[in-house]
Amino acid sequence: MVVITACAFLSLFPTIALCKGLIVGPSVVEITQGYNNVFPYENFNRNVTVPTWDTSLLNGGDKSVIQEDLDAIANATFIVYDSEFYKVRIHRLIAFVWEFLLTSLHQLLGISGPFEEKQVEEVFTFPDPPAYAQRQIHDGSVYVPEENALFVAELFSPKEGYSMQAIPYVWKVDITDRASPNTSKVYPNPPLTIANGAYRFNGSIYWAQEGNTTTPSSIVRMNPKTLETEVVKNNFYGHRFNSMNDIVISNDGVAFFTDGYYGWDNFNDTLFPELANGIWRWDMRTGNIKMVAGAAEGAFFNPNGLAFNHDQSKLFITNRGNSSSDADGARTIYINDVTASGLSNRNVFSYSDAGFPDGIKTDQDNRVYGAVVGSVDVYNSDGTLLGRIKVADGDVAVNMAWADNWLYIFGRSKIYRVELTTTGR
């Protein structure tokens, strides 16, 4: 259904588009400025664990109209807050004595506006988790072009009283046939011990594995063809790391990884932490290792996801805090300058309105993609929320991986993909 309103016309002119309604297309809902400024109901509230379309309508007047709006948002595939979600960029061309703008015809979503249809494909549905699990998590997603395949780890968040159990397999998504991806279990040898983050470097996959009471947390290199694994980093001068979560590696071989208290606090599967939460810099060329940000300076508690920008001059770091379901939870993405010896100029890049951004990725135009409850949130390079790429109702996006111009999204229950007009970093 396409709803054409006065706002649809006015949206062509951003300076006067102050309508308070929604622009509803077949798969896109565009949130107008007025609607975003003033929620159109007299009394409302929202828990930090639920997405915007689950905002609670408290005691008040007629709820039918606003409930229709929330249902429209819930049923959309894409939610647009800013027209940049359609547009890739504007090029400015200066020649001799005149100046003019050349606007790119390319759109991030591949559509020109809300009245064109576009879909997110569901690629695979994971089997249900075992009885001891509270939920399943799919993290550490990475694309390996040499194998034309994506890899992602699986974790089962245990119920209270249980510990996390190591899983001998990871999932492989073979996209040799792009029209019909084939998803199957593959078995690293030796197996990983609760892998979270993953990064491809020089043809190998580097996993950040949490470890457990008998296997120290470590960085493990895996040959994606043979699945042979080797521990390449597992200590800080004899200290065990707490529970590594994510890793990125620069083109010249400098790795940054996050280390938090997830194993001890959340999953009851590691030894008592002896080190502060932190972000570590490991020079793979020299072996030098040092903490470059963390709880010791009061900035991070349970840091999580990592992503470089396009030229690796910036590093994005997600901070979960004690609990993503707590109003005091961090739910923050920080942006840092990458220096010759570490990080500097830390600033808040964004604060998530639901859950926390677990996995994060960037594209060649320096947008940032955060996996959260119900969607992947897309920000421009300034940290402005442009829009959301929705996942199935009730699902939580956990991580992503780029395969050319396809963004693969790994949720708790499904794998999704969407074709965009940009590519990953």
Automatic annotation (TrEMBL):
It comes from Penicillium salamii. The keyword Signal applies. Keywords: Signal. Transmembrane segments: none annotated. This is SMP-30/Gluconolactonase/LRE-like region domain-containing protein. SUPFAM superfamilies: Calcium-dependent phosphotriesterase. The keyword Metal-binding does not apply. Residues 1-19 form the signal peptide. Residues 214-403 form the SMP-30/Gluconolactonase/LRE-like region domain.
